Amino acid sequence: MADLVLDNVTKEFQDDSGTIVAVDDANIDIDDGEFLVLVGPSGCGKSTTLRMIAGLETITRGDIRLGGGSLAGKPPKDRNIAMVFQSYALYPHMTVRQNMSFGLEESTDMADERIRTIVEDTAAMLGIESLLDRKPAELSGGQQQRVALGRAIVRDPEVFLMDEPLSNLDAKLRAEMRTELQRLQEDLDTTTVYVTHDQTEAMTMGDRIAILDGGELQQVATPLEAYHRPANRFVAGFIGEPSMNFFEMEVQGDRLVHAPAGGEGKFAYPLSSAVREKVGESDRIELGIRPEDIELVEDAAGDHDFETVVDVVEPMGNENNVYLTFSADDDETFVATVGGLRQVEGGQPVVARIPESAIHVFDADTGAGLH
Ligand code: ATP
Fold first, then answer.
1. Is the confidence at residue 52, as pLDDT, over 90?
2. How many Å lie between the centroid of ligand 1 and the Cα of residue 81?
């Protein structure tokens, strides 16, 4: 069983200004065969986590176990783990065949004929069998990417570690490779940890995603759980495109009132018992609403509807991202995603509706999701 466990893993670096906590007490249990995506903004500790699993970086505190056994003290070559890098790291002077067979020749006593078969089968699986005699410089970025994957696959490791492997590809190829990589991982059923800063990649590829910020794990969940029940404001804002809108609100009696710090509230609505339950004892909360959950309606029909002015419309083809302000002289915008048939233009007044059933509620002080 190749389940991979990060047990209270901390990594500190020392530099002139003191201690940098790159990864702070991370706990993740990754199941055998699972595709786990580590996602977060630049500098949040993704690569450091991956490098600790690979054995390229020591662990300051905690332990990493593979199949129940600690990896502590095991050099990278003795871990049955293959890493795929963003830069592909192919040997330029070797052909594709040599790049793919090199690791097996060096680290096993497998017969040449057997290695040849494995390399050719893997190349066929990746659709690069006709490229085996070429050098990396004679390949496109997408083809080099496949060779890098092939080199990891031939080793038949217990774990794949992938560090932003698609980020050097153009958008179309990246989307194609996302699906292909997923299919491949499903077929091979190899435990995979995949690092990206791209939330779309995380949402579409991961069985589960682990969201990191500032070295701290924010949530480990399925993509849908993270989307529908974000653990906190950070996750809520990070997952989803365009990002969730947030409004500062105050509970005033039986009403929920928009109350931005230092500004004038623009809307309010009755506090239902369901929302009251979520809010609990807090007086101040942050209300989160996803752009796709805001509706633009003809006329205000209730307390959840309020006047806004269209700032900018971003056409996306089948839908539009409509950036709205509370008034024409306001520069703070929020965004609604509406169907492409709905035509609105800059400067136009529209009525926005925030359906209560779609709101997310966060503690204003801690940012914790109140569910
Ligand atoms: P990116 O997406 O930009 O690659 P990341 O999430 O992979 O970022 P890491 O590379 O893991 O982030 O870095 C986490 C933190 O640790 C950062 O603050 C970084 O500056 C710091 N760090 C990483 N390696 C070292 C090092 N060798 N010495 C000192 N600090 C380091």
1. yes
2. 21
State which of 47, 52, 195 you would mutate to test the pocket of ligand 1, scoring each by most atoms of that ligand within 8 A of its C-beta: 47
pLDDT at 331: 75
Residue 44 Cα to ligand 1 midpoint, Å, equals 7
Does ligand 1 come within 6 angstroms of the Cβ of 20? yes
Average pLDDT over residues 229-250: 95
Indicate whether 233 and 257 sit together in one domain. Answer: no
Peptide bond into 291 cis (omega under 30): no
Picking from 238, 266, 297, the residue at the C-terminal end of a domain is 238
| pLDDT over 80 (residue 78) | yes
- Taking the C-alpha atoms of residue 46 and residue 135, their distance in angstroms, rounded to an integer, is 31
Per residue in 339-363, pLDDT tens?
877 788 888 999 999 888 899 999 9
Residue nearest (by alpha carbon) to ligand 1 atom 18: 43
Decide: 167 in ligand 1 pocket, CB within 6 A: no
- H-type alpha helices, the chain: 46-54, 96-107, 112-126, 141-153, 171-188, 199-205, 223-228, 233-238, 273-279
Residue 358: domain span: 245-370
